[in-house]
Amino acid sequence: MTIKRALFNYILSSRYSTSLLKTGDKLKQTRIFSSQDLVDYSKVSFDANPLHLDPEYARNAGFKDIIVPGMLVASFFPRIIATHFPGAVYASQTLHFRLPVYVEEEIIGEVEATSIRVSKNKHIAKFITRCYNNGVIVLDGEAMAVLPTLCPAEV
Fold first, then answer.
1. Pairing of strands 89-97, 136-147
2. How far apart are CA 149 and CA 28, in angstroms?
3. Can you give the residue ranges of the MaoC-like domain (predicted)?
4. How far are the Cα atoms of 6, 62, 74, 77, 122 from residue 31, in angstroms, in the given order?
5. How far is the C-alpha of 120 from the C-alpha of 53, rounded, in Å?
6. What share of the chain is helix, strand, coil (3-state, %, to 5)?
7. H-helix or E-strand containing 9?
8. What single DSSP character describes residue 102?
9. Cα dist from 129 to 22, 45, 49, 139, whole Å
10. What is the rounded distance in angstroms from the CA atom of residue 60 to the CA atom of residue 78?
């Protein structure tokens, strides 16, 4: 088993094939965030918000437990794109944080190609980005990436 497969569970949408990326294609991955992920993220980002690290503080603020940092959840999107298109350059992202994500919940990250154009031998793709928890959107937005090719890598 490769390291990638050990860390993340990859799902290809039924609409997605191994042919060239086209408008409407969806790429997905699942992930369960752990308490250690939050500690590691805090160390790297210097984000010591107690909502992400202190269960009592989070409960007193009205959450059921510590919440996964929204930017950590959003890191799903460039990872999904780069996994399928190594060398992709992430150009932009908008985000709408809809609902909290808690540790040990299975989250599905999805990117859906909405437009693709060629400019100077590069492929500029726009995507709708979404994260789901039990079928409910917890995070969404739009992204743009410059892809080296429209032919996805095998994952």
1. antiparallel
2. 19
3. 28-122
4. 11, 25, 12, 12, 30
5. 46
6. 25, 40, 40
7. strand 9-12
8. B
9. 16, 22, 25, 8
10. 33
Sequence length of the chain is 155
Partners of 62 in beta bridges:
none
Sheet of strand 9-12, all strands in order from the earlier edge strand to the far edge? 9-12, 26-32, 106-119, 122-133, 136-147, 89-97
All domains in the chain, ordered by first residue:
3-17+25-147 (3.10.129.10)
Tokens of 65: 């437990």
How far is the C-alpha of 28 from the C-alpha of 76, rounded, in Å? 9
- pLDDT tens figures, 52-95: 999 999 999 999 999 999 999 999 999 999 999 999 999 999 99
Q: The dihedral of CA 60, 62, 63, 68: what is its sign?
A: negative
